């Protein structure tokens, strides 16, 4: 025993701590498992015979010590303390990464997604739009404010902008937001870490008097540029490229008059990392149904490399069943559309686009096919090689999974020279969710899916669970 006490580097050496007046006894190896840069590892190197005093909350320290011992949180911990309380103490001790690894959700599999929470800002809680971060954090725009929630979905702060309302928001850097409003012109930049307004970018043309009061409709982000679609009161519209280093307009991808459906302003923009292409889509709905276009630009040449108009010049095996929304799977370079009449989902490989590149998804079991589609507004979002569709108020999930639960790979050319892909569909509480209102926006972040509903307060948070039934389908 004397040899163990004299050698402070023995992993099993006992160390006594006095945290806020409560005594704890643990081993050197437990404290050092916090990591070499942590406060606990630094304290463990002290060859002290008297308990080391730490002026912090002993109850939360007990939870964090249990985390170091078992690499999990005690079952009662989250009933006693909020994640924010645990995170603040974990940051002090230098074990925040350990806490994050055990408290954040498991990988998001849409086939068993379920609502786990609803995030409601304190005031003006009906959101106008929102943005999800790669770490699972959330920015909610409501009125002219942006409420900020961290990766634990704990409320951080709210930033009041100079706008009356915010209808577009995009993360151009981790703490920098680009926002637009349907009631005010220009793209506006805010540093959300400090709440400061940074500047604005406007679409103007001194030689064209029709270009004035241009409002933002869609925003996409790349490492070097921000792509923004603008719309003027007389329907002139454009997609411009903004240099992120200078926040100045560097080029104009397109300019058109929105007098026809095929020339309306893009309501969605997506930057494709694999190729650097920009994909825009627009949808209009009138007395004769839906119509719209999908257009792909190369920002380097400013040329359109592919486009389709529905109904119109685009040739389709479903002519007359125009799409109601479009999504892009940036991981696999797959373009998806949801049909306005049938509610069917179709996919196209962006690397093999042609006159009619669409492959339509169908249920393999006729008894499980959708009996009807109400024709209401639909929203489509691609995330983590999965397709999420808000349809008739319910959430429909298409997952590219193989039979063993892993992600499927392309299996070579199938019929008509097209790749065969295995997908599974799941309806998540379709009837119950429909009663909650129509889904207005879907976005993924971290291992979560977020959704807002028409005239409903708050943002729904979806995570993986084991409560939903699975319906097998294939293309």
From TrEMBL:
Organism: Gossypium gossypioides (Mexican cotton)
Name the UniProt record assigns to this protein: BTB domain-containing protein
Entry-linked InterPro entries: BACURD1-3, Beta_prop_At2g24240, BTB/POZ_dom, SKP1/BTB/POZ_sf, T1-type_BTB, WD40_repeat_dom_sf
Domain BTB: start-end pairs: 13-111
Pathway recorded for this protein: Protein modification; protein ubiquitination
GO biological process: protein homooligomerization; protein ubiquitination
Pfam families listed in its UniProt record: Beta_prop_At2g24240 (PF25279), BTB_2 (PF02214)
Matches recorded under SMART domains: BTB
């Amino acid at each position: 025993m004397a040899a163990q006490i004299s050698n402070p580097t023995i992993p099993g050496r006992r160390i006594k701590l006095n945290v806020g007046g409560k005594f704890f006894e643990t081993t050197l190896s437990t404290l050092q498992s916090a990591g070499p840069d942590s406060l606990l590892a630094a304290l463990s190197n002290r060859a002290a015979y008297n308990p080391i005093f730490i002026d912090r909350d002993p109850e939360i320290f007990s939870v964090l010590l249990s985390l170091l011992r078992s690499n999990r949180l005690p079952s009662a911990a989250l009933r006693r303390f909020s994640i924010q309380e645990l995170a603040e103490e974990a940051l002090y001790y230098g074990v925040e990464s350990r806490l994050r690894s055990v408290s954040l959700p498991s990988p998001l599999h849409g086939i068993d997604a379920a609502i786990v929470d609803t995030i409601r800002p304190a005031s003006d809680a009906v959101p106008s739009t929102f943005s999800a971060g790669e770490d699972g954090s959330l920015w909610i725009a409501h009125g002219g404010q942006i409420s900020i929630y961290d990766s634990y979905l704990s409320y951080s702060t709210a930033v009041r902008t100079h706008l009356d309302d915010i209808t577009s928001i995009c993360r151009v850097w981790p703490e920098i937001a680009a926002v637009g409003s349907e009631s005010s012109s220009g793209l506006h930049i805010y540093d959300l870490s400090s709440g400061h307004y940074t500047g604005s970018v406007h679409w103007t043309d001194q030689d064209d008097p029709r270009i004035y009061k241009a409002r933002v409709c869609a925003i996409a982000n790349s490492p070097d540029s921000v792509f923004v679609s603008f719309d003027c009161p007389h329907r002139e519209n454009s997609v411009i490229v903004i240099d992120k280093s200078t926040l100045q307009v560097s080029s104009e991808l397109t300019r058109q008059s929105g007098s026809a459906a095929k020339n309306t302003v893009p309501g969605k923009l997506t930057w494709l990392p694999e190729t650097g292409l920009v994909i825009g889509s627009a949808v209009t709905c009138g007395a004769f149904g839906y119509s719209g276009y999908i257009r792909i630009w190369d920002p380097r040449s400013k040329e359109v490399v592919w486009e389709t108009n529905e109904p119109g010049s685009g040739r389709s095996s479903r002519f007359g069943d125009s799409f109601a929304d479009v999504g892009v799977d940036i991981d696999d370079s797959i373009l998806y559309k949801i049909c306005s009449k049938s509610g069917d989902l179709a996919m196209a490989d962006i690397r093999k686009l042609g006159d009619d590149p669409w492959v339509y998804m169908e249920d393999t079991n006729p008894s499980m096919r959708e009996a009807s589609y109400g024709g209401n507004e639909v929203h489509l979002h691609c995330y983590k090689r999965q397709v999420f569709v808000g349809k008739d108020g319910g959430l429909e999930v298409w997952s590219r999974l193989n039979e063993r639960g892993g992600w499927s790979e392309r299996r070579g050319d199938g019929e008509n020279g097209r790749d065969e892909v295995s997908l599974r569909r799941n309806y998540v509480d379709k009837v119950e969710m429909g009663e909650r209102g129509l889904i207005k926006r879907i976005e993924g972040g971290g291992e979560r899916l977020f959704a807002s509903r028409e005239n409903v307060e708050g943002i729904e948070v979806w995570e993986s669970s084991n409560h939903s039934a699975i319906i097998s389908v294939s293309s």
